[in-house]
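User: Design a sequence. Structure:
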């Protein structure tokens, strides 16, 4: 399982001089399990998809929007031919913004925005932004850049955006994520209320996820969170697993690992520092959990991340030298 996760990492081929990739896929083919550090937005226009993100299955119908969070292992099944829009964007440097990080934790592993149940004003605004991104990316003549079943995929990566086009697209994606974050309860509960009687009891489980996103680095337990939610321990454990697709402790550990991945981009923090900041009881427990989740020990993950995002291009760490690091390699 570890080698499967490690070998499934995909290096996204971005458009030249950007950290973005966008295309329209008309190919009727499945994609095996893979993951990447980019967010991925999939918007089926003519045919549905079945997408498995970690242990959760999403049946994404025509018109639905699925936002897959960074570093999530996912598998895509094409149920029938037809076009689907893909947007991929590297947000690894933006997770230093606490609310971006919080939004991804609340959405994880993915946020399914359903055309049939999402509040109409929210859905229409999200679609309007996606169309605007398409216009910026493809321009008035998308034939060269849109359909990689007709053209070599490298053509998409090596055609350039107009000046400040990348900045425009990222500003729209920021608004997209902010709107989803502010309305996460409405977007999630619109579907879940109809399928689970648990939402008729006490507070919404989406509020529990919000609570966890703000306190996951603390010493919290299943019992304490169940009490906060107003459920018995056993009832809470059952409906929480139904709602999130994972157990309480799996969910808590995932949040901590995701946060640790962000902290690992800071070379001034040692592995031990990161383990405690992320909420682990010891660096040994952190290293074991991190390797089980990602396929890499933290030190190896940090090295791979540095290869993809050199510190020399980060103004804050431009003068950093590895010999100054407090990091200690943990096997």
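Assistant: Done.
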């Amino acid at each position: 399982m570890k080698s499967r996760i490690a070998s499934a990492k995909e290096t996204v081929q971005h458009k030249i001089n950007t950290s973005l990739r966008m295309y329209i896929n008309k190919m009727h083919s499945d994609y095996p399990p893979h993951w990447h550090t980019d967010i991925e937005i999939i918007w089926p226009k003519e045919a549905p998809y079945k997408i498995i993100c970690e242990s959760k299955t999403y049946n994404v119908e025509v018109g639905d929007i699925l936002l897959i969070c960074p570093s999530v292992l996912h598998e895509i099944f094409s149920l029938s031919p037809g076009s689907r829009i893909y947007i991929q964007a590297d947000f690894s440097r933006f997770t230093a913004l606490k609310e971006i990080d919080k939004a991804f934790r609340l959405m994880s592993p993915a946020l399914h925005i359903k055309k049939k149940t999402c509040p109409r004003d929210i859905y229409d605004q999200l679609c309007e932004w996606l169309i605007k991104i398409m216009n910026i990316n493809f321009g008035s003549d998308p034939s060269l850049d849109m359909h990689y079943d007709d053209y070599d995929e490298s053509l998409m990566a090596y055609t350039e955006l107009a000046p400040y086009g990348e900045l425009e697209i990222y500003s729209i994606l920021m608004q997209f994520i902010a709107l989803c974050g502010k309305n996460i309860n409405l977007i999630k509960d619109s579907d879940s209320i109809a399928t689970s009687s648990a939402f008729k009891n006490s507070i919404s489980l989406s509020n529990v996820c919000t609570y966890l996103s703000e306190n996951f680095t603390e010493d919290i337990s299943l019992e304490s969170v169940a009490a906060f939610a107003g459920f018995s321990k056993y009832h809470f454990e059952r409906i929480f697993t139904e709602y999130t697709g994972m157990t309480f402790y799996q969910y808590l550990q995932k949040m901590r690992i995701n946060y640790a991945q962000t902290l690992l981009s800071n070379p001034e923090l040692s592995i031990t520092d990161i383990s405690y900041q992320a909420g682990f009881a010891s660096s040994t427990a952190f290293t074991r959990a991190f390797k089980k989740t990602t396929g890499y020990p933290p030190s190896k993950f940090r090295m791979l991340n540095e290869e993809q995002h050199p510190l020399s291009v980060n103004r804050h760490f431009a003068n950093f030298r590895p010999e100054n690091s407090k990091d200690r390699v943990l096997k």
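DSSP finds 14 helices and nine strands in the chain. The longest strand covers residues 38-44.
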